[in-house]
Automatic annotation (TrEMBL), chain A:
<protein>
    <recommendedName>
        <fullName>Geranylgeranyl transferase type-2 subunit beta</fullName>
        <ecNumber>2.5.1.60</ecNumber>
    </recommendedName>
</protein>
<dbReference type="InterPro" id="IPR008930">
    <property type="entry name" value="Terpenoid_cyclase/PrenylTrfase"/>
</dbReference>
<keyword id="KW-0677">Repeat</keyword>
<dbReference type="GO" id="GO:0072657">
    <property type="term" value="P:protein localization to membrane"/>
</dbReference>
<dbReference type="Pfam" id="PF00432">
    <property type="entry name" value="Prenyltrans"/>
</dbReference>
<dbReference type="InterPro" id="IPR026873">
    <property type="entry name" value="Ptb1"/>
</dbReference>
<dbReference type="GO" id="GO:0005968">
    <property type="term" value="C:Rab-protein geranylgeranyltransferase complex"/>
</dbReference>
<comment type="subunit">
    <text>Heterodimer of an alpha and a beta subunit.</text>
</comment>
<feature type="domain" description="Prenyltransferase alpha-alpha toroid">
    <location>
        <begin position="9"/>
        <end position="293"/>
    </location>
</feature>
Automatic annotation (TrEMBL), chain B:
<protein>
    <recommendedName>
        <fullName>Geranylgeranyl transferase type-2 subunit alpha</fullName>
        <ecNumber>2.5.1.60</ecNumber>
    </recommendedName>
</protein>
<comment type="function">
    <text>Catalyzes the transfer of a geranyl-geranyl moiety from geranyl-geranyl pyrophosphate to cysteines occuring in specific C-terminal amino acid sequences.</text>
</comment>
<dbReference type="GO" id="GO:0004663">
    <property type="term" value="F:Rab geranylgeranyltransferase activity"/>
</dbReference>
<dbReference type="GO" id="GO:0097354">
    <property type="term" value="P:prenylation"/>
</dbReference>
<keyword id="KW-0637">Prenyltransferase</keyword>
<keyword id="KW-0677">Repeat</keyword>
<dbReference type="Pfam" id="PF01239">
    <property type="entry name" value="PPTA"/>
</dbReference>
<keyword id="KW-0808">Transferase</keyword>
<dbReference type="InterPro" id="IPR002088">
    <property type="entry name" value="Prenyl_trans_a"/>
</dbReference>
Amino acid sequence: MSTTELLVPLHVKYIQSLGENKDDLAYHLTAHLRLNAIYWGLTALCIMGHQDALDREEMIKFVDDCWDDEIGGYAAHPGHDAHLLSTLSAIQILTTQDALEHVKVDRVVLFILSLQQPDGSVAGDQWGEIDTRFLYCAVQALSLLGRLDEFNKEKAVAYLRRCRNFDGGFGSSPGGESHAAQGNLHEVDEQMLGWWLAERQVPNGGFNGRPEKLEDVCYSFWVLSVLAILRKMTWIDSEKLTTFILSAQDPEGGGIADRPGDMVDVFHTHFGVAGLSLLGYPGLNDLDPVYCMPAELIKRKGLTKAWLALPRRDAIGGKPDHE
Amino acid sequence: MVSNHNVKRTRVSPEALEAKRLKELSKVKEYLALNDDLLARKRSKTYRKEDFEATTRILSINPEFYTAWNYRREIFLNGLFPASTPAQIDEFLSSDLDMTMAQLQRHPKVYWIWNHRRWCLEHVPEGPGEDGDSREGWRRDNWNKEMFVAEKMLDRDPRNFHAWNYRRYIVASWPSIRTKDDELKYTKKKIQSNFSNFSAWHQRSKVLGAMWEVTPATRTEQDEGMSSHHTYSRFWLIILEEFEFVKSALWTDPGDQSAWIYHRWLIGEGDDLVVLQREIDVIEELLVEEPDSKWCLDSLVHFQRLLLQHKDESSVDVSSIQQRCAFALTKLEAIDPKRNQRYQDIKLQL
């Protein structure tokens, strides 16, 4: 099969098969990412219009089993410790499945708020790793729960300012190098950041995460999401990027890899599909670039921001309309 | 798999797949036994030496198992440390630093390993002596060793942002380990061995920025104990050398974006008209040699637009600058079609 179009049935089958690999050592070695993986798989399915391909009840039950009652958050796997990353994944999954009543909201909010440090930064858990990614996770989780007003935004913004670099990008901590995966909250120099992001596109159409590094499908989403928020999606070559993402598909087993010819995984499958949705690829559902969740869902919750993705194309080969 | 990076796809026959499955079965069984044993110990909240060893066994197979790292630290805090002298605690932590060093060789980008090192460092007790310098002995030794490790990791992969972040963390925690001048020398060495190493350029901008407070645009260096005249001339010397350094990088490979991005930082807001004009001349000189250099043209547009801020100066001819920008942007649209919408948008703003 050729990789000039998105192989939806194969990807659906690939995502369905992920839970059936229990004889692979790799499956067990990645238990610490299980809840994240379920969020990636579910969101990719929603964007491809196949939300029901994974069993809803079974999924909700698994999320419930990941609850860490001692800490008051969700772990990535039953029996593991709660962490902010998996707590966000749990809230995203339950929001998408319209099952937020399973969340002990007050306790989760308390857990998330307890992770904010006096300087405004946010830790991933009680062991204290600090990263701007965690600040994003905290804001998104609280926002989905309707409790963002309890978060100290002034301090958080002051902290983010300290992570900002002259090139318009953000590092993972003050002094850190700008990284395309760190850029989701903002108060930004739009011209400068737009320039830096547009220059992440390399000659084969893919995006890298930092200057003079290799391209990778997951940056399609990291870079595109911020460009959509800046309403500057037209500053890159969307056709070339579309071709690049499609070429990283596995035309036999399904799934999308970091680049053409590599092993696929659910992380890159999700971010590849998410990128294609923002690029207006035909037949896909809209993705909200701020939450990286189905746009319709975020709209229903009244949380939609003023982002702008490329218009959905009708047919394969149709050119995106640069309006 | 959940997340692969840079692993080539291979086709295997169903027979080979079945053979692999059978071979892996015993490994899976063994791993699950370790896993279940560890989680049971954790649930029972025991913090003995044998529990500690159970974490070592599973982490040596799977360093991403963050819950096992958490349990390991709980064992230190609740079981091993309370029963130990400061010297023994120092030894425990040193040996954990050695263990994670070996793991970093195999897994240089696993966050949890880097995190555990930080935790260890922050728990090194005071000692061996009780006063002054000797009280800091263990800590100093460990921080020094840590700098060595971070720099070894950067020798292996000069773009590893974990190692760069970690290195910044060491300098921030133990400032005497590297002076600003040491940092300038280190970043220069890294850049000279590879001009594409933007991580090193970035670090250089942070060091110089701290020396000048914030950005070069504000230009207020604070070197205490120096006469203002001395400070002033030293400051200009550093700046001049820096422009010469970046110029040599630009001429070496005008297609590499690292030095161009740094050059843009160095000029900043372009408040100094003389410097701005001089650097525009430098780029125009390079453009004669490389008429189709995208980065030459893009930088010319950026810096000439900064010139427009000085439109009250007699040397700044607004309409000629606008014309030159428009000309460069038209050329950019042709040689860099991927981003032509950006060039068109800028043209509209001229």
